[in-house]
Amino acid sequence: MDQSNKNNYVQSERDYFANIEDYFQQSSSSYSEKMHAFSRFVPRQALSYFLARNEVFQKIVPMHGSILDFGIYRGASLFTWHQLSAIYEPYNHLRKIIGFDSFTGFSQLHPEDAAAADNSFPLKQQGAMEFAGGAEELARGVALCDMNRPLGHVAKVHIEVGALPESVDKYLNEHPETIIALANFGLGLYAPTKAILERIKPRLQRGSILLFEELNQAMWPGETQALFEVFGAGNVHLQRVPYCPHLSWMTVEGSLS
User: In angstroms, rounded to a whole number, what is the distance separating the alpha carbons of residues 187 and 213?
Assistant: First the structure.
């Protein structure tokens, strides 16, 4: 709930979020027991994101190529891809998962990002959602997950730290072999989203999936504008699942020239 607009929640939901952490901390179970019963503690909203990403991931299992995740913040999407890859394709050591983030919070907002409801959401400002020490914390998590992954000695996840889109340029220049099966956008902002879409377009294949977290949302108009400017309305066909309203995706079809 800390990352959401609290005005979207009714009082009972606010009460749930105010009490669920204490319930988790005060539970008599061990860590292992809690994780086996994780549905006791995980909000339905978080489960819906995981299930939606699971559906998207299954679509790329037969596809060759890497996963690029832009704006990983605390790793919700990045670690979902990591875990699902270990489950669905345990021996696909060529599937790389690259997470991009500066960990310094939102970059500069542009006029295309302005929305009437901005004043009701204090997190929408430059520098918000900073994650100090985030790169090191997530890297430790990746190392732990690798201990419990087939072929865990072969690196799969890489975290590229730096401002966007410059860090994307750096990675693609260093890895000209990169083909994209899935690109996940969690930026919400016009300028970096548009710049990244332009840079990855030559690395997409027919069937590549572009997954977005803030399309068609009044709070984040820049992401929608960026997508339509780069691909054009005639090439955008968005899909979604009924239980997770925020996530939507398009499958690349035909020529991108």
Answer: 8
The Cα 37–Cα 32 span in angstroms is: 9
pLDDT in tens, 205-236: 999 999 999 999 999 999 999 999 999 999 99
Instruction: Name the pTM for this structure.
Output: 0.94
Structure tokens of 30?
């061990």
Under 8 Å between Cβ of 54 and 23: no
Contact between 216 and 182 (Cβ < 8 Å): no
Using CA atoms, how far residue 36 sits from 29, 41, 133, in Å, is 10, 11, 29
Listed by start position, the domains of the chain span: 10-42, 45-251
What would the CATH number be for the domain defined by 45-251? 3.40.50.150
Residue 213 C-alpha from the chain's centroid? 7
Query: Which band of pLDDT confidence, cut at 50, 70 and 90, is reported for residue 130?
Result: very high
How many of the other CB atoms lie within 10 Å of CB of 253? Answer: 11
What single-letter DSSP state applies at residue 42?
S
